[in-house]
């Protein structure tokens, strides 16, 4: 008798946990851990970046002005911080790209057409940044 009730409680907990997960997961914000290359990336320059727990690798990247970019951004730190990072560049109109631990995103960006050096970085961890050079 005791074992049966225990089993019933366990079953109930499992069912609740499963339905809870489903209702909390919005289809529109489903996370793809290894995003495919988006359509239209054929003529884009691939800019490959990696977030570690304290830096972005590489620290600088040079892009021709007006060049369309395919950002391939990974977050390889699943241990030390194990937190989301975002790449944001307000000065150059680069909107937030979020990368969760262990994820690789592939996003197209129109690029920027004023030569110069611009800081882009993570707003979650303000000490993590890099420089994009347009020339
Ligand atoms: Cu970060």
Could you characterize what this model shows?
A hairpin with a 4-residue loop joins strand 5 and strand 6. This protein has one helix and nine strands, in the order αβββββββββ. About 4% of the residues have low confidence. The termini are far apart. The chain has a single domain, classed as Sandwich (Immunoglobulin-like), CATH 2.60.40. 15% of the residues are buried. It is of the alpha/beta class and 135 residues long. It binds copper (II) ion. Copper (II) ion binds next to loops.
What CATH calls the topology is Immunoglobulin-like
Please compute the radius of gyration using only Cα atoms: 20 Å
Read across the widest sheet, the strand sequence of neighbours is: 2-1-4-7
For the record, the CATH architecture stands as: Sandwich
Short précis:
The protein has 135 residues and is α/β, with parallel strands linked by helices.
Keywords:
135 residues; alpha/beta; Immunoglobulin-like; four-stranded mixed sheet; three-stranded mixed sheet; 9 strands; binds copper (II) ion
Strand and helix layout:
Blueprint: H1 2-24, E1 45-51, E2 56-57, E3 60-63, E4 69-75, E5 85-89, E6 94-99, E7 104-109, E8 116-121, E9 129-134
Parallel strand pairs: 1-4, 3-9
Antiparallel strand pairs: 1-2, 4-7, 5-6, 8-9
């Amino acid at each position: 008798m005791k074992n049966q009730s225990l089993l019933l409680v366990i079953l109930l907990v499992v069912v609740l946990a499963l339905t809870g997960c489903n209702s909390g997961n919005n289809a529109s914000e489903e996370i793809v851990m290894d995003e495919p290359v988006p359509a239209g990336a054929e003529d884009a320059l691939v800019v490959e970046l990696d977030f570690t727990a304290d830096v972005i690798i590489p620290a600088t990247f040079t892009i021709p002005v007006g060049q369309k970019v395919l950002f391939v951004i990974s977050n390889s730190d699943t241990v030390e911080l194990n937190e989301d990072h975002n790449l944001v560049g307000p000065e150059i109109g680069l909107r937030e790209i979020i990368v969760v631990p262990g994820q690789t995103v592939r996003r197209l960006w129109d690029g920027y057409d004023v030569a110069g050096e611009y800081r882009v970085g993570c707003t979650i961890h303000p000490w993590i940044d890099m420089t994009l050079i347009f020339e």
